[in-house]
Amino acid sequence: MALKGNLRDFSITQLLNLISMARKTGTLILERSPEQLFISFREGKLSYARDGTDSSGLAMVLYRSKKLNAAQVRAITQKAQGITDKELGLLLINSNYLSQQEILTSLQSYYLNMFNRLFTWSEGLFRFENELLPPADKITVRIGLENLILEGTRRMREWEQLQDEIPSLDMALKFSDRPGVNLRNLNLNVEEWKVISFINPKNTIHQIAKATKKNDIEIRRIVYSFIQAGLIELIRPVGVPVPPPPVQSKITPPQASKTEQKSLIFRIISRIRSL
Amino acid sequence: MQTVKMVVTGPFNAGKTEFIRSISEIEVVSTEKKISSEAERVKAHTTVAMDFGRISIDENLVLYLFGTPGQRRFDFMWEILSEGMLGFIVMVDSARPETFREARNILETFHAYAPTPYVVAANKQDDADAWEIEDMRIALRLSSQVKLLPCVATDREAVKKVLLELLYSILEEMDTSDVPSADEKRSVG
Asked: A271 and B112: CB-CB below 8 Å?
């Protein structure tokens, strides 16, 4: 029977546990428009992962992990066109430029980054293809799923909490009115400074995430830490009309003139005072 | 006979029933049920539909106080109870910080149902473990415009003060309702 369904009904942790326990080999394809992820397993262990929209080869993975600089990547793509990832890996190892361990660590980190994104998906279609294996020219790894599931479960809890605190990325941010707080004295890292530079009531969190190349969980984490530190506040973006309250039509405040309403409130005040 | 209503809401075991009981002129009509869940067994009974108290204002006007069930599984009642209310009170147990987040969520939910004035009552301020009011304001992420009032729900005078503060807020709202986007200015956060 095909292993397919929706993560809404069968959670990602249940699915991964099943793959691990059944020592499955094949590729799990997950779709949540517009995202598509391909996660491959060999005998129940993570072996390869790729984003449907990102066909980065090894050179780009090493660039992202800062093992190669931009000029080196350019040189590789120009001089070694058509070279496979395995061939490139061997070339870098044989020329003593990088060790096998460095290449594998970069790839593991790249695959895990993609794999961990799954834990923020509460819904999305999935199917497991037994016949679909990683392309032969790609370098695969072998990572047991048990610890990844445990770590992922922790991420899910964090994700749920972050969603609770920041329910929508369509909100904007503004600096809190806290006289005496000087941003320059704050101990922020580069990524946090990037986000800070975009804080403006006109920018939604979603736009800030896009501008700073952060995924949902990364931007939520940073925004949440700023909110907790009392640096910023969530606000409705400037220019966005106030939505009508959802059940406004059903709310029926006393139908009376303002004077009558006030008189009514004064009567209640007077009575409660006298109790 | 004209009737108006106010709603008393808040997390499980925040003191809503006690609050209404302290001020109601009738024995509170309570739909309490024995607690079955071990996790929620901090008290013997809980409200499952609503509490209902009454204060006769004069011969033509009656104020009803409705207490909402505190447990999330009964939240289908919230929207029904919020309909047509003058304002609402969010009760928070000052000694149980683990319920602050839930209180905040309830506040936001009610405010979305009906953007009427509200106050937050920091209940059980007589408890040795009660948080300071200003600490609670930060933890609940309430702006300085939101009234956060110390309260002991078993103390009739404290309950009266909370009700009066809500009524003053309603009056203020009426005075400013001609100013556009008054609701926008009131930050719940």
From this structure: no
